Amino acid sequence: MTERQKDRPWLMRTYAGHSTAEASNELYRNNLAKGQTGLSVAFDLPTQTGYDPDHILARGEVGRVGVPVSHLGDMRRLFQDIPLEQMNTSMTINATAMWLLAMYQVVAEEQGADITKLQGTTQNDIVKEYLSRGTHVFPPGPSLRLTTDMICYTVNNIPKWNPINICSYHLQEAGATPVQEIAYAMSTAIAVLDSVFASGQIPEDRKGDVVARISFFVNAGVRFIEEMCKMRAFGRIWDTITRERYGIEDAKQRRFRYGVQVNSLGLTEAQPENNVQRIVLEMLAVTLSKDARARAVQLPAWNEALGLPRPWDQQWSLRIQQVLAHESDLLEYEDIFAGSHVIEAKVDALVEECLAEIDRIQEMGGALAAVESGYLKSQLVSSHAERRARIEAGEEKIVGVNCYESTEPSPLTADLDGAIMTVDPAVEARVVAALKHWRDSRYQPPFNHPRPCKALEKLKEAAKGTGNLMEATLECVRSGVTTGEWSEALREVFGEFRAPTGVSSAPVAVTAEKGTPLALVREKVARTAEDLGSGRLRLLVGKPGLDGHSNGAEQIAVRARDAGFEVVYQGIRLTPEQIVSAALAEDVHCVGLSILSGSHAELVPDVLVRLREAGAADIPVIAGGIIPPADAEELRRAGVAAVFTPKDFGITEIIGRIVDEIRKANKLDPLEVPA
User: Is 549 one of the annotated active-site residues of the chain?
Assistant: First the structure.
């Protein structure tokens, strides 16, 4: 048999970073040695939201879900002995993207790199932060300006860099249907390109250069056919928009370039070994079709619903990609789906529905207007509620969760607490101490006081004007300014933004006809409120710390509302002090805390202590999130009434158990109404 010419494989990445810059650097170098062909940097939540590690909101979050990078020294250590001129680096960073890219550029310059050769991607999609991930800082207008300035700077100075990764991944995590995922991402792209071209920073004859550097980051779920068709629809719509709206004639510049992380929303805590086949199936959706193949792929690990993956778990995910690329004959053939009437019909339907939704958003004034009005968020909350309702009703099957639940003991999770990586709590103190040393020593050469102060004043002046902010940001980096100081300077000028939660406007997703589970819980809620003489039961749903993944909290809030609770939900990014103050002011009967970032061990006990000090120890506190068993037991010993993790997928049942805890805390007899 004549050997076929194989296509070049996609970039293989692992989303990684934890603890400290030094520890993450070692992890990166080890992954590169194992055959990884690109870096995908995970930053911790304080870095993503523009806080230094010693800020009150950073407590318990430092180094948890990524690496803390507080200043140029951290960035140097993160990429020590990694030649950036030869690397392709993806950075998952949005509100502070300009700041992180500036530090990356300065480190590259210090290495002697030609910055025009730097390759990689900054995610830099703030719209989806308002809708799903919650690491936004500034209002939509100033945020779009930061994105615009950064795109213009990179096109003119770092031409191989992808300055934005328009990100539909987290939209699907927040409940988006394929139509919503495509339409909202494309609406974001339109808003960004309109802003870039209106800024006057790009000559007319270079518009194609801008479009050619726009990349996308998408999600691939387990519905293989639908997801593969979604990728083809994405490409067709992008080609149409860039040609018809922006007049881009060069087909290469109109190419839909995307990277993918396959779905983490569908990973299960129950029978987590099943996640391996889910990951493989999802990966095939973005690799089998040559005409819609991803340019970069990163896979989650089998145990991400349990906690932070270990290096071995990440290696396993990398090996999945390598087996497909190097052992199979996938890369030897043209597109194997071309000409399929099934595929073409599905793609045509998706394109038609997506274009209609894009037009609807444009009529509202575009993506940013649809964010500020709450339309996009309420649509996502509704879609997610409908999906959860289908799972609970058994209409949507999830193996090991709502069907085929019996299982043999798994050797992978025999030591459940050892099946994930944990971050030493002492790391935070070390990082804070190192930050203090940096602040103290930057007044010595090469920085010399008062350069940091002068650089920050120049940044604020630039922000008050209309010029590009990248040069002032680079001056801050070179002057030793910290992440928190850069962000705080811009907060002074731009202000902050609290995005709509979408909870109050979400329609009812689960019916409460007589005899249904929700009707029975509604009866429990009404009888308990009557027994307490309180009119209605009141539940506070709180998101302490910097974890912005609010999907679970929103679904609890919506279902509790539909069960008859008065729900107090103020959105994300609250301190324990603010949560306790709200609980007291609203005279709530229960406090529910949602944390997925790993900071539960610090923040939940703090809420308990503050309630006791306020004389409100009788208010039951429940916790939900990705909480390992040992941590859950520790929280119960500290006084938490109940702990819920991803295996507790029945939201109506959870609401019923919340009522039980309220009755127990108020010394009421248990109700015989089943939950």
Answer: yes
Catalytic residue among 547, 606, 631, 660: 547
Query: Has 531 been annotated as catalytic?
Result: no
**Is 443 an active-site residue?**
no
The verdict on whether 460 is a catalytic residue reads: no
Cα(251)–Cα(230) distance, integer angstroms: 20
Task: Note whether 238 and 185 are within 8 A (CB).
Answer: no
Active site residue 184: no
Cβ 225 vs Cβ 346: under 8 Å: yes
Please state, for a pLDDT cut of 90, what percent of the chain lies above it: 79
Tokens of 114: 């030609």
- pTM for this prediction: 0.89
- Active-site residue among 169, 184, 258, 569? 169
- pLDDT tens for each residue of 156-184: 999 999 999 999 999 998 889 999 999 99
Give the C-alpha separation, 368 to 189, whole Å.
11
DSSP code for 296: E
Catalytically annotated residue among 18, 128, 230, 549: 549
Beta carbons within 8 Å of 578's beta carbon, 6+ residues apart = none
Can 543 be counted among the known catalytic residues? yes
pLDDT in tens, 59-103: 999 998 899 999 999 999 999 999 999 999 999 999 999 999 999
Task: Note whether 192 and 146 are within 8 A (CB).
Answer: no
pLDDT at 273: 95
- Residue 367: partners with Cβ closer than 8 Å, 6 or more residues away: 127, 184, 187, 188, 190, 191, 361, 376
The answer on pLDDT for 448 being more than 80 is no
